[in-house]
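Quick one:
INPUT:
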């Protein structure tokens, strides 16, 4: 069976690496990179580190408004799909690349499978939420990572073709953490002690594009009582420059500003952080998997189970409380439920695709 996989952003490269290892044992995979993340540190380095074969196609769409970016992806992807004639399209997550792949497959009457289906933040002002909902409703196979995700689909009337397989990012983490600890020297390079720093990432438009909110977040980070390693997403870097906040952050003695790092370095930084401060869904989840407390700079999260278990705290509008919330995470929760499967999600996805190769309802 020929499967055309669509990826475009860092978390999708990680997920696809885990699934592709299993798919390529018995299927032919055509890998398409939309170009949504085109910066080397956000894209190519992940293919190299994760030992993912080079994409068969790079659509080179790059940055643009949501409408233009999604439309350009669909135009270019449609040409590839018509040429390759895949039996199925496989999409991941909640980006514009995800939606473009799902819509192209639907319009061309090619069956589409969605990895990480059923996630909901219930905030439709988030582009990712709209992408998730639309994608789930045009796919015939939906691979959910958690009980919560499966229940979300059932509430929307989607029950056929739903398979709860676990989380492929957990597969990737288990596969790569020993490699990371052997190959990464980032703690030594940065002179960091385990549990001696806060790891911070910030990239969502809601946090970066509103000047007052970004200023409040950066002021709060500057008041954290221990070293903060702030990994600057290209969007965040551009907004700091645009709003004139670069000097403020470089003047904060506790903050060390860095470019994004590769996946192996990121795993080591996450595992050894005292606390993680982020607005990334994937980083929230990896924090939980490493049993590291997380502070999420959002009002809601798709990964509600991490909040309910006490390992993740939502900041909401209380941005000035970030230093206080970080201080309160010194005591870890007593329990750590196994929400994300047993590390065999990718294998289950490959097996299900084989069993459902003709699209016959279960």
């Amino acid at each position: 069976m020929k499967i055309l996989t669509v990826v475009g952003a860092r978390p999708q490269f990680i997920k696809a690496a885990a699934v592709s290892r299993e798919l390529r044992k018995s299927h032919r995979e055509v890998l398409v990179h939309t170009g949504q993340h085109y910066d080397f540190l956000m894209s190519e380095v992940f293919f190299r580190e994760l030992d993912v074969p080079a994409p068969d196609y790079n659509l080179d769409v790059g940055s643009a408004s949501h409408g233009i970016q999604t439309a350009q992806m669909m135009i270019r992807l449609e040409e590839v799909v018509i040429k390759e004639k895949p039996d199925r399209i496989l999409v991941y997550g909640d980006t514009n690349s995800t939606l473009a792949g799902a819509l192209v497959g639907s319009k061309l009457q090619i069956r589409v499978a969605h990895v990480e289906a059923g996630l909901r933040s219930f905030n439709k002002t988030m582009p990712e939420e709209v992408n998730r909902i639309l994608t789930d409703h045009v796919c015939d196979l939906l691979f959910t990572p958690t009980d919560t995700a499966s229940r979300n689909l059932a509430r929307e009337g989607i029950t056929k073709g739903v398979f709860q397989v676990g989380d492929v990012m957990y597969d990737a983490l288990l596969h790569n953490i020993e490699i990371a600890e052997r190959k990464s020297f980032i703690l030594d390079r940065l002179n960091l002690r385990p549990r001696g720093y806060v790891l911070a990432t910030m990239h969502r438009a809601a946090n970066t594009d509103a000047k007052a909110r970004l200023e409040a977040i950066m002021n709060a980070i500057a008041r954290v009582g221990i070293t903060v390693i702030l990994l600057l997403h290209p969007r965040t870097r551009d907004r700091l420059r645009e709003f004139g906040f670069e000097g403020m952050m470089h003047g904060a003695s506790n903050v060390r500003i860095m470019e994004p790092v590769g996946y192996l370095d990121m795993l080591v930084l996450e595992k050894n952080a005292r606390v993680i401060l982020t607005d990334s869904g994937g980083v929230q989840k990896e924090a939980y998997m490493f049993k590291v407390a997380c502070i999420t700079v959002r009002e809601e999260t798709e990964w509600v189970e991490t909040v309910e278990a006490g390992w993740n705290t939502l900041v909401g509008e209380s941005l000035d409380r970030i230093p206080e919330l970080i201080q309160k995470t010194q005591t870890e929760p007593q329990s750590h439920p196994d929400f994300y499967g047993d590390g065999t999600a990718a294998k289950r996805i490959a097996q299900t695709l084989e069993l459902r190769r003709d699209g016959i309802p279960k």
